[in-house]
Amino acid sequence: MQLITNSENQKTTIMEIEEGSIVTPIGFKAAGVHAGLRYNKKDIGAIVSEVPASCAAVYTTSHFQAAPLKVTQNSIASEQLIQAVVVNSACANACTGEQGLKDAYKMRQLMAQSLQIKEEYVAVSSTGVIGEFLKMDKIEKGISLLNFNDTPDNADAFQEAILTTDTVMKKCCYQATIAGVTITMAGAAKGSGMIHPNMATMLGFITTDANIPSDVLQGALRKVIPTTFNQITVDGDTSTNDTVLVLANGMANHEALTETHPDYPIFLDVLSATCENLAKQIAKDGEGATKLIEVQVSGAANDEEARIIAKKIVGSNLVKTAIYGSDANWGRIITAIGYSNTASVNPSCVDIAIGNIEMLKKSEPQPFSEEEAINYLDQKFIQIFVDLHNGEGQGKAWGCDLSYDYVKINASYRT
Predict the structure, then answer these.
(1) Tally of CB atoms within 10 A around 34
(2) Segment holding 321, helix H or strand E
(3) What does the pLDDT read at residue 401?
(4) pLDDT at residue 405 above 90?
(5) CATH superfamily, domain at 7-283
(6) Is 176:265 a contact under the CB 8 Å cutoff?
(7) What DSSP assignment string belongs to 267-306?
């Protein structure tokens, strides 16, 4: 599939590689094993680059950042290079005090020793239950069992190892031409519940063989996060462990990208496409979800206000339950717009449509077929369109419906 987008008046051709994975970019390998942290599923995974890679990361804004995030921040601060990422599921290693921090540093040390690289070249990530300590004997055993390769099976093993309540693996891969060279970018993510990010979302790992310095890469990631990962919500809860980490090892061997390089916008487009794809997969796989919801807001005072309103709508429990029940209750949409207090709205000129079915025009109710609306809402992908007629701002957000199964999953998460 080809994506044609516009970046600063420049057309960009991006090719999605359907069979691609986190190890498709040159020089990356992965592995995943079952170490006993979970009953019968893989629970420790890792990605490794042949050479130290430029890196960029964004993290949860929670006051209770988990120990692995602090260790990863320490690693990146050392030389702005990362060569390996080690991840465990089943235990978040969050709110675990000094012991949790020691365990996260030990996890970094074990991975570095296994690969015979600097400790500071290792990033650490954890996901799972908050407030429980890592079983370090099993962590050590699992790391010793990792057998790295660049095969699809190894990529899948890594992805399986990082899942918790997810029902599917989340991955994507793109290619584009930069400085006359084909570069590849791939992503893997996990996330199903506690999804309402601010700076990142759950766990996302992106690899690329593009040549871009860490400071430029960090700037690029910060540019695309607000319109991608930060625009999804499942349940309004922000996790203690949310992280998005990008590694760029430069093995495509093109001239280094800078913000003034003519092909820098192409890199931004590829990074944005990767982040948006992963974000939408997370929203679609929300705990208990049966439908993916996309809200498109236009006519806002500016893009930021459009994004705020779109996320308010897709995050409304009343909207989410209406979508689950295939109820075309546009009043719930207007209610969500109404309490978007940080955005300006003229209540006399709002348009709302669900799919191509117009429900409200200039804030006046429109006749529509309930049968047609139900048929549309019975689909797996639902779009809601809002035009505020208040400016040129545009924004999107993604989420999912709210079903009975969400309560069942979260009522017994620890058991």
Answers:
(1) 18
(2) helix 317-324
(3) 87
(4) no
(5) L-amino peptidase D-ALA esterase/amidase (3.60.70.12)
(6) no
(7) HHHHHHHHHHHHHHHHHHT-TT---EEEEEEEEESSHHHH
Quote the CA–CA distance of 148 and 114 in Å, as a whole number: 11
Quote the CA–CA distance of 174 and 164 in Å, as a whole number.
Answer: 26
- Whether 292-411 and 7-283 are alike in CATH topology: the answer is no
Any bridge partners for residue 399, and if so which?
A: 293
Catalytic residue set: 201
**Residues 224, 230: Cα–Cα separation, whole Å:** 9
3-state secondary structure of 15: strand
Q: What pLDDT score was predicted for residue 195? A: 43
- DSSP 3-state assignment of 194? coil
> What's the per-residue H, E or C state across 20-34?
CCCCCCCCEEEEEEC
- Rounded Cα distance between 289 and 275, Å, is 21
**C-alpha R_g of the chain:** 22
Residues 6+ apart with CB under 8 A from 120: 74, 75, 78, 79, 81
Per-residue pLDDT for 1 more than 80? no
For 380, the 3-state DSSP assignment is: coil
Residue 192: per-residue pLDDT: 62
- Whether the Cβ atoms of residue 1 and residue 175 lie closer than 8 Å to each other: no
For tokens 């957000």, what's the residue?
397
Bridge partners (DSSP) listed for residue 119: none
Distance CA 124, CA 122 (A): 7
Instruction: Domain 292-411: state its class.
Output: alpha beta
> For residue 207, what is the enclosing H or E element?
strand 203-208
What are the extents of the domains in the chain?
7-283, 292-411
For residue 22, the one-letter residue type is I
The token pair that represents 359 in the structure block: 């429900």
The structure tokens 């800078």 sit at: 258
Single pTM value for the model: 0.88
Amino acid sitting at position 156? D
CA distances from 315 to 196, 319, 335, 388 (A): 9, 8, 12, 19
Can you tell me the distance from the alpha carbon of 307 to that of 309, in angstroms, rounded to the nearest whole number? Answer: 6
Q: What is the distance between the alpha carbons of residues 148 and 31, in angstroms, rounded to a whole number?
A: 5
What φ, ψ does residue 237 adopt, rounded to 5°?
Answer: -105, 130
